[in-house]
Specification:
heterodimer; A: mainly alpha; B: 264 residues; mainly alpha; two-stranded antiparallel sheet; 11 helices
């Protein structure tokens, strides 16, 4: 464990040095992310200038969904998304050999190799939006904060499992770029309460593509409107998905052909 | 002269079809965004008959037609141009009897046609499934909107190429390109009618080039503008096209002087 933390620290420092070498790029990338976050926030705020509720949710409640989406999405992006995204390039060029040759677990090195510092910086305004949203619920019991935190971590774990599944597809086909982007787009749908979608889409987003479990469940648990059976379902689902994604990764690795190396 | 670009067009068409799974996934992504916007706006309109100047039927039409316009206009080349500059691959084109920027324009015409065909098909299926009460435009409005879409495509192309050429100054120009993409995506009016925004911001965005990519053509399509606004709008759209063309040409010429063909 200590060795892995040390490796992670070295990789994080390396990533930071590499990113900051082009300061203009670094700050403009962050600016782009803030533009996206700010304009969607403005869009939600503007909608509430015209209507009192959206899919039965008030302005603070809708903000909570948006803030929760940002936190989970940014955490996933900062910790492992970039690493898994880059695997397609490594597999195509045959450079994935280097990951297999290193004395570090190949999944760890694949996923956690790239620490996205831009997202870590973006986490600050996202956390500020979340803190502001929390302040709109002054009488919430501490227990709901705790449950919210647990379900946010659970959401990050599910996002991790989905990323592993998609990354492992690289060992079968080189055409995974849009699969990753599809995952991102599905995540984006969770910026709004999932109640906006009719059935069967809502059911699909809960059971098949568990975007609802990742983002909406923590927000609903905080608001005290999530049934206990769904809370247990969320934890069970993350366990099953993480376990099966690790198995799938191991099985898929056997299909790596080391092309072009 | 035109034969070589016809070949480029054919090859680009084949290239799109070569990576079918990737292409299919890209289409699924488009459907997801369309669904999200459709359900979001129909949820907003549960109850009130009219909001920010739109009825529910008009906002649904705005989303669907906006999606068609987007697929035709927003086809990026900046990444390929930036990569060619950073890798030195651009050198191969500079020694050939081919206009590099026109080459990319032709390549993207092929992508645009393919995306447009798919979007028409998807939107058709969507209309059959959801059966929205679509209002069709009058012939003059449709004509004005189509002219504006052609102009918007030119505006987008010049802005997009300008972004790509920034790679002459900073490695691959990820930052400026990403920031510009976000600005174009969110202030073009694709995600939401800009008129929902606070008045001051709306006024500012209305004169920036990005609103002429989707919002202005859609306003023309839906007949929301009086004669004077149409005239001023076209005037501004053409002015932005001229300015963005000059910017692109200047960046390209200045950039070529700096180009070191590293790795090429």
């Amino acid at each position: 464990m200590k060795k892995y933390l040390e490796v992670y620290k070295i990789l994080a420092i390396h990533n930071f040095s590499s990113l900051i070498s082009s300061r203009l790029d670094f700050w403009l990338l962050i600016t782009g992310k803030l533009i996206r976050m700010g304009l969607v926030l403005l869009m939600i705020a503007s909608i509430f200038n015209f209507v009192p509720v959206l899919a039965g949710y008030t302005r603070p409640q809708t903000l909570l969904f948006f803030a929760t989406f940002n936190i989970i999405d940014i955490l996933a992006q900062a910790i492992f998304f970039r690493g898994f995204w880059q695997i397609q390039t490594l597999v195509r060029s045959g450079d994935f050999d280097q990951i297999l040759r290193s004395p570090i677990n190949n999944l760890f090195l694949s996923g956690f190799r790239i620490v996205d510092w831009m997202d870590i910086f973006t986490l600050i305004p996202a956390a500020a939006v979340l803190a502001y949203t929390f302040s709109l619920f002054p009488s919430i019991h501490w227990w709901f904060f705790f449950l919210y935190g647990l379900l946010v971590l659970n959401g990050v774990l599910i996002a991790f499992a989905l990323n592993v599944f998609i990354a492992a597809l690289n060992f079968y086909t080189p055409e995974t770029e849009n699969a990753f982007l599809l995952y991102r787009d599905l995540m984006y749908t969770a910026r709004f309460p999932t109640e906006i979608f009719g059935e069967p889409l809502r059911l699909i987003f809960t059971l098949v593509l568990p975007i609802t479990v990742i983002v909406a469940f923590p927000a609903k648990a905080f608001l005290g409107i999530l049934d206990w059976k769904w809370i247990w379902f969320a934890f069970a689902l993350s366990s099953v998905l993480v376990f099966s994604s690790l198995k799938f990764w191991s099985a898929s690795l056997k299909h790596y052909s080391s092309a072009s190396s | 002269m035109l034969r070589k670009y016809r070949t480029v067009f054919k090859l680009s068409w084949q290239n799109v079809l070569q990576y079918r799974l990737n292409f299919l996934m890209g289409r699924v992504r488009n459907i997801i965004l369309l669904l999200t916007l459709y359900f979001l706006w129909t949820t907003v309109f549960v109850g009130p008959a009219k909001l920010f100047g739109f009825t529910q039927e008009q906002i649904v039409a705005y989303v669907l037609i906006g999606n068609l316009f987007y697929s035709l206009i927003f086809v990026h080349s900046d990444n390929d141009i930036a990569n060619a500059i950073a890798s030195g691959g651009l050198s191969l084109f500079l020694v050939r009897p081919i206009n590099y920027l026109f080459y990319w324009f032709v390549r993207r015409v092929a992508s645009r046609l393919m995306h447009l065909l798919m979007t028409v098909l998807e939107t058709g299926i969507f209309i059959l499934l959801v059966r929205p009460d679509l209002q069709f435009p009058t012939a003059p409005n449709l004509l004005l909107a189509l002219v504006s879409v052609v102009l918007a495509t030119a505006l987008f192309t010049f802005l997009d190429f300008s972004a790509g050429t920034l790679a002459f100054w900073t490695l691959r120009a990820y930052g400026p390109r990403f920031a510009l993409r976000m600005l174009m995506d969110f202030t073009s009016g694709r995600m939401f009618p800009l008129s929902i925004l606070p008045q001051t911001l709306f006024t500012v965005l209305n004169v920036l080039p990005f609103s002429f990519l989707i919002f202005f053509p859609l306003n023309l399509y839906q007949g929301r503008l009086d004669s004077l606004s149409v005239l001023c709008g076209f005037g501004l759209q053409i002015t932005w096209i001229g300015l963005s063309f000059l910017l692109m040409r200047e960046l390209w010429q200045q950039g070529l002087r700096r180009y070191e063909a590293v790795g090429g």
